[in-house]
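cron nightly-structures :: item 1 of 1
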Amino acid sequence: MNRRIQSGLCAIGMLCAAAVTAESTDKNTFKFVSLTSSENQRTGIGVDFNVQDLELGAVKFSARGTYSFDDKIRAKDLMSFGMNVSLVTTGDCYDVPLDDGGPIAVEPGTVPGTVPGTVPGTVPGTVTDTPPRNKCPFGSWRLMSELTYETDQDFSNKNTVAGLTAAWEMPSAHESYVFRQFYSLLDFVPSVIRATTGRPGSDDLLLEEPIVSFTAGQVDPQKDTVREQLLGKLDSYYRGAAEISLTTPLAQFDGKDVILAYDYRYFREIDAEAAIEDANLHRSRLSQFSLRMPSDNKRGYAFVGYSSGRLPFGVDDEILQLGWSYQL
């Protein structure tokens, strides 16, 4: 029996890390998708949007969510629109040694202290000078305060949320033996697939450094039909959330990679009342996988995706997605 799950939640951060995130290729994107529901055997058309860090002075604006034109497909029934302000950022991780200690500029995709396109230790002379000292052995953090408006896709239930989000970018593999072993475990199955498909460099560790975010905040329900029916009131409450995202290549065609992306989101109400727990509204989780196809278009690619679980306001379901992603 289908039951529409409607519950407020604390906004999970938009993974606003200081450097490249596992979701970076989806930043400022619109996805036009076909959604097929396992729960009710329906297929509909939808739009998935993820707009991050539109700056207005010190304030950054973000929007994220999925809208299905079939109101029976609701596993990802959550749209959030918010603004955040950075409180603490540990992103300038490299200093020039034997100098004034000031930060240096590092080109995207290169290892500090090396010639772009080379790997330290493989060819004599690749190191341009004494490599910069890493001040972030455990990765970089960003702490931000957020104010978010949340709603379901027909705007019948809505919350406002005030909270704090910490986004952690784990250190790169070449800087930490312990983290390299952890990344190797995460990348084991994809590395086997790469070897099977004959992708060049299949023995290399190609997993992007995962990004993890943690959120805690106070939810103020403006309207939540199910919650009000269960409790007879709409008091504010506290909720925690976490998310981890990562990407890694699986195969290569015509010199272009097929990318596997994984994202896991978890939400839990803190000290929920018994009626909320009995209705299983105190927590929700969603696992998402997608394969990004090679494309000559620098701004777009075709993809196939699968998700299992639900977001708050959603219904537990398994969803198959086919579509096109376009980056603004």
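cron nightly-structures :: done
Residues 67 and 308 are 17 Å apart (CA to CA).
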